[in-house]
Structure prediction request, 495 residues.
Amino acid sequence: MKLERQQTPFHELHDILDHALSKSSDKRVGLLTSITGGEIATLLLSPKDGTAELMVTAVENNKYSSFSTHHAQFHWFERALFDFFGIVPEGHPRFKHLLLHDQYAQDFFPLRKIDLPTDFRNALPRRYEFLEVKGEGVYELPVGPIHAGVIEPGHFRFSCFGETIVNLEIRLGWVHRGVEKRLTEVPWQKAHFVAEAAASDTALANAFAHAIAIESILDLEITERAQYLRTIALEIERLAVHIIDVGGIGTDIGLLGISSAMGRLRGKALALADLISGSRFLRGFIFPGGVRPVSERKLSEIKAGVIALKKDLTPVIQMLSDNQMATERMKDIGKLSKSLAAEFGMVGIIGKACGIDCDTRRQFQQGKYPELAPEPSIEIGGDILARTAVRVGEIWSSLKTIETLVDNCPHGEEKVTVPEMLPANATGLGIVEATRGELIHLIFTDEDGKICRYAIKDPSFDNWTAISIAIRDNLIADFPLCNKSMALSYSGNDL
Prediction:
């Protein structure tokens, strides 16, 4: 997507955001970041017409009036902006560090490229203070960051009254690796290897978004066959993750037969990934300019595998759907209202389960989408049952979509020649509907054509707040199932 930077005076920005994010508008916040630390870059998306608007606004004296006071979608973005660039959102309702932990130096802002003002004093302590809930009978239950299960680290601080959760505060950042900074240091021709490593279960989607962003900077058109193959691979990745996540629901309910069956069938989905890319996790398949070659025989095997997988999945999913205990265990638990989901900018499975059509395959160019985009799976319950129903709907949708794409995939070249240099002072944007929702890669080049800023917004960054909201007034025992129904990424969020 070709994207032009608009220089927006700061005194106009609040009014623009108030109008753009009003209830009568379809726009949403895609990303808030900075390039050097001397400005704010605000990306607004218009799903209705599939366009994006990037406003770059200079900040004075390293601070600005917080957007979060009027628009909740900004609340984590502004905390991350401070962590990495030191830009202070004055008036932020819950201003504290987000991803950089206590051991970092007080004035360490790793992505800042310009000097801090001489009179700047960081008044925000490095020591993280959790929200304290007071009252007779209220107690705290800390969980993590090291867990009994083999999962990534995250800390959950529950404030409870009896068995009821009054508040949940989530602290992440334990697997922060400096991915965005590294993407400005490697040669851009090799950057897709770093981009796809941002989150291992969405390697293909990250490589896809990276390729779209680079190709938009180069104004490069790839072949029709490559577009089809990229889209097939994307749906295979989405399929594999949805299958194992439904299996995880079975685990937390106690239906171990469903859990083990879905684990086995995920292996069959990963075999489809291996057929198209040579990697069960689709590594190294997509790069700027195209994809690795795929033979017609492999495509035929993929279609046969999809047909067989559909047959194998049918009785297992039917068993889950027909199980009254499972339905009662999920219904009205971990419920999130449509209004709060919209206010906080929830995307993907979580937004769709609240009745929000937030599928970027229908809105933004990515492979053969939106031309061949399927109808999204939408539910209105907002609870665990609705999120599971959306996931099941996406499994069937992906299977059908892969068949259609394979049947219509044209012959031809799989890649085109890519220029050796990126243009100077350019901006590139890639948006892909990853398994968890809207994934964004935003790239800026400097006057020498080198990548000077690389920003990634994983859908989990939008959605982690949803767990804290949805689990309130539920039992502690409901948290694992609620958490699994959202199945968010730690590493994708932490980067």
